[in-house]
Each structure stands twice: as C-alpha cells, then as structure tokens.
Amino acid sequence: MDTKQKELNVTTIKDVLRQYLQEKGFRNTPERYTILEEIYNMEHHFNVDDLYLLMMQKKYHVSKATIYNTIEIFLDAGLIRKHQFGEKTLSTSSYEKSYFDKQHDHLVIYKTGSDKEIEEIIEFCDPRIQGIKDSIEQAFGVTIDTHSLYFYGHKKSDN
C-alpha cells in the first residue's frame, strides 16, 4: 500500500473514531488517536504488551490501563478485531486492525515441541468457506454476519 493510501486510511479511521466517541458521549482524547494510528501502522497481530512496548519506545506517555480501555473502545467501534490464538502470554488476547480488512481465517503454527508458543500466524481466504457459510445459512434459516475459523498445528518435519 502506498503512503498516500495509508494517509487516507488513517484519516478515515480517525473520522470513524471521532464519530463513535461523539455518539457514545466519550471524551475525544489525543491518546486514543495516537494509539489508533500506531495500530493501523502495524502489519501484524499484536497484544496489549506489544502495543504498550511500542508506545514506550516511541516515548508516548500512555499507561497500560489506558491502552486496555482504548482497546475496548476500538473493539466496540469495529476498528479492531480480537482473537484468542491460545498463546501463553500475560495478555492472552491478540488483536488486528479490521476496518478495511476483508473476512479471513487463521492458521496458527506452533513452534516445534510446543503446543502454546506461536511460531507464525498465517491469514488465508478460501472461497470454499463461503460455500459452507451459505449452506449453514440456508440449513438453519439464519444470516451469518461474521465468523472466526482457526486451524492449529505444527510444521511437518523433513524426516
């Protein structure tokens, strides 16, 4: 994505946040916009500890409690998505930006010899999953708005 598109995206998500905060009667603080911009500059999943360390490295004065509270606002506003990949960290939830992202699923690959330490998370989109979703909607008479699909495994050894 080029720099100009990234700038447009950041402007858009800041407008979405501004409108959300106004509708909910929440304070419009500069910290919230700074945290949002840092998240949207990331290219990977993150947890609160990752985000807090990044903010500290960049000399932002923001507490971990502020980040936790802000994450909840972003979730409710539809700006980020929460995942439970099964990792063993202090903050066990992972997050990713979601406003411009299409629906996708995840393959969680654990490190060899571990069932909780993540080596890699691969995002994928398989059109067959859409067919399954359509079948479920038809069979149960529902409309599925969103879904989460996780596969967990290890890389095969070359033996």
UniProtKB/TrEMBL annotation:
Keywords: Cytoplasm, DNA-binding, Iron, Metal-binding, Repressor, Transcription, Transcription regulation, Zinc. The keyword Hydrolase does not apply. Its main location: cytoplasm. It is found in: Cytoplasm. Fe cation binds at residues 105, 147. It comes from the Bacteria. One of its GO terms (cellular component) is cytosol. Its cofactor is Mn(2+); Fe(2+). InterPro entries: FUR, Fur_C, WH-like_DNA-bd_sf, WH_DNA-bd_sf. Binds 1 Mn(2+) or Fe(2+) ion per subunit. Pfam families: FUR (PF01475). Homodimer. Belongs to the Fur family. This is Ferric uptake regulation protein. It comes from Epilithonimonas bovis DSM 19482.
